[in-house]
Each structure stands twice: as structure tokens, then as C-alpha cells.
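Page 37, continued from 36.
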């Protein structure tokens, strides 16, 4: 049931952005990552991960430690349920045996029970406030449970103990970004890169933070650096393309998005590709991209808007003669409004041109 060699899986962010031809839409953050750091010292208070046993009588303490040792052997044999029973007995005999709480958290974490793992790591962190591992793993579980504010607090406690831990800084920046606080995320995202310049996830994360701060030229630099360090992924390419578009590099944006759709077709990638071609005045290419986006997801209203704008543009440029083109444009806008009613610019276009 459990692989003892498996390492912790922290979270890092890639800010996927999708925008219609009229307005920017915020996207999602991906989970993934690297293992839990076991090193990375630095200035500050050193961590203390040894159990507290002084409060218990010697006989109870020894019995608890023996139970802990037996539980560890069972874990190595993938007998987690039996190990948990022994650990519960050890904690009953010595509630301040921090390593027993950590062991419980590790078992639950490895088996995907993040709620129970968070409780166990939280108990360990309360017993040993200066334990980096207890605070970091507590933050990690809270992060995976989407309890972002609590995760930030736990990560900050971990970093107070070990300021130069790469993964803790990376995850803290991620959590702040998910809370839509990119200014708070920035120093930790930068510190991640200072500590580990070759960290591709860190580069992508810093790019996402800079993008959220509308510092897109800097974001492009970080995304391009990340591409040198990571396998190509549609999400990373979409992020890069969005920032390229924000600084008017539409040809590069189109090339980047062509690479993205070659890796995996998606409605948002084709919609962005349509936008790039539209800005390059390559209207036929833009129309094809918008139609492909709609074919992949008929309810993706940014693509409906994009196609509507393309058709309306064609109608106006050709002397307002082809009413069928105009009518299809209006139908795209109406379909979009049925999905998202709060689009005043789309409403205005329908009002102005539906009876033209």
C-alpha cells in the first residue's frame, strides 16, 4: 500500500491564462513538483526534529519508543494499519513523542489521506515549533487541501526555521499566487531562483508571479528560461504566449501557440491562437482557429466572441453587403451571452449591428 522510498510532493504554480479577443480571463494553477528538501540551511534558528520525552516517566518513554521502532519495521513491510495501531499506543503512552506524530502523518500522506496527515503534522508542529519538517509537511498537506491561508502560515513558520529551503520558498510563493497576492509571492519566488538558478519549476513560478503583476517582459524571460529546463507542456507554452501577446509580440505568440496545439489540442489554446492571428491581420487563420476552439468546446464563450468579431470584421470590410455573415456574427455573440450574461461590450455590438 505504501512505497517507503516515495518523497514528498510539494506544489508549484503555473499560471495558465486564457483571454477572449475582448477581455482577459484568469486560468488555473497546476500541481506537481519535486521532493521534500532534507537540507538547505542558512541563517536563522536551526530546526529541532527530535522528540520531546522529558515529560513522560522513563518506563513509559522507553515503552513508547519501542512501539515506535516496531511500527517503523511494519511500515517497511507495507503493513500500515498495524503500524498505525502501534503508533497510537506509543502516543498514548507518551503524547509528546513528536517522531510518532510525524510517522503517523507520513503514513496518511503516502496513502492520500491528507486531512489525517495534516492533523498529525499539526500536532508535531505544536510540540516542536522549531521543527522545519513538521511545519513544512503541515503546510504541504494544508496546501493540497486548498486551505491556502493556513498553508501560508505553516510555510512561513518553516521558512523562519530554514530560510534557504528551495521547496518551502517555491510553495509559499505558489500559495500566495493562488490567493491572488502576487506582490507577497514575488520575494519568495525570486529567492527560489537565487537559491537554485536551474530550478525549472521555480522559473515558471516566477514567470507566473511577474505575469500577475503585469510585468510581462520579465515574465517572458522567466518562461523562456523554464522552457530550457523543463519538458514542453501546453500550460507553460500558453503562459509564455499570453505574456508575449501582452507586450505586442504577436508573431512569437502565434508560433508559441502553434507549438502548444501540436502537443495537445485545447479550446483555450486555439482561442488564443485565433487572437494572435487576428492581431496580425491574418483573418482567415484567425477564423479557422476560433472555429476549431468552438468545435472542441461549444461552450467556450471567448472563442464565440472571437469568431463573432472575425465575422463582423469581414462584414464591415466588405461594404456591409453579406447579411449572412453579419447574422452568423450576431448568433455567435448571442450564444456567448447565454453562457456569460455580463459582457457589456458584446451586448453593445449586438445592439449596434443586429439591425444594421
Amino acid at each position: 500500500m505504501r512505497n517507503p522510498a516515495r518523497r514528498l510532493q510539494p506544489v508549484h504554480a503555473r499560471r495558465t491564462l486564457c483571454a477572449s479577443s475582448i477581455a482577459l480571463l484568469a486560468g488555473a494553477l497546476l500541481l506537481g513538483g519535486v521532493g521534500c528538501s532534507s537540507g538547505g540551511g542558512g541563517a536563522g534558528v536551526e530546526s529541532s526534529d527530535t522528540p520531546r520525552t522529558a515529560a513522560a516517566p522513563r518506563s513509559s518513554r522507553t515503552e513508547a519508543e519501542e512501539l515506535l521502532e516496531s511500527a517503523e519495521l511494519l511500515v517497511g513491510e507495507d503493513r500500515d494499519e498495524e503500524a498505525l495501531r502501534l503508533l497510537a499506543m506509543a502516543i498514548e503512552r507518551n503524547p509528546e513523542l513528536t517522531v510518532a506524530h510525524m510517522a503517523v502523518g507520513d503514513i496518511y500522506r503516502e496513502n492520500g489521506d491528507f486531512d489525517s496527515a495534516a492533523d498529525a503534522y499539526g500536532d508535531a508542529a505544536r510540540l516542536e515549533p522549531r521543527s522545519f519538517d513538521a511545519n513544512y509537511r503541515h503546510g504541504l498537506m494544508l496546501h493540497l487541501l486548498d486551505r491556502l491561508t493556513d498553508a501560508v502560515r505553516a510555510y512561513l513558520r518553516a521558512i523562519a526555521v530554514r530560510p534557504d529551503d528551495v521547496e518551502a520558498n517555491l510553495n509559499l510563493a505558489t500559495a500566495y499566487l493562488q490567493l491572488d497576492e502576487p506582490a507577497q509571492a514575488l520575494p519568495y519566488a525570486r529567492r527560489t531562483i537565487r537559491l537554485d538558478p536551474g530550478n525549472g519549476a521555480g522559473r515558471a513560478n516566477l514567470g507566473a508571479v511577474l505575469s500577475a503583476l503585469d510585468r510581462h517582459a520579465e515574465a517572458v524571460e522567466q518562461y523562456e528560461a523554464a522552457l530550457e529546463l523543463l519538458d514542453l507542456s501546453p500550460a507553460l507554452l500558453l503562459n509564455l504566449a499570453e505574456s508575449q501577446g501582452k507586450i505586442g509580440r504577436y508573431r512569437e505568440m502565434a508560433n508559441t501557440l502553434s507549438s502548444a496545439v501540436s502537443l495537445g489540442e485545447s479550446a483555450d489554446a486555439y482561442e488564443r491562437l485565433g487572437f494572435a492571428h487576428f492581431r496580425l491581420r491574418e483573418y482567415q487563420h484567425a477564423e479557422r482557429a476560433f472555429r476549431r476552439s468552438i468545435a472542441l468546446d461549444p461552450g467556450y464563450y471567448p472563442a464565440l466572441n472571437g469568431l463573432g468579431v472575425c465575422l463582423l470584421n469581414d462584414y464591415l470590410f466588405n461594404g456591409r453587403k453579406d447579411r449572412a455573415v453579419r447574422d452568423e456574427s450576431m448568433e455567435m455573440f448571442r450564444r456567448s451571452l447565454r453562457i456569460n450574461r455580463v459582457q457589456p461590450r458584446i451586448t453593445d455590438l449586438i445592439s449596434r449591428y443586429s439591425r444594421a
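Residues 58-76 form the longest helix (19 residues). Flag for discussion at group meeting. Strands lie at 15-19, 24-29.
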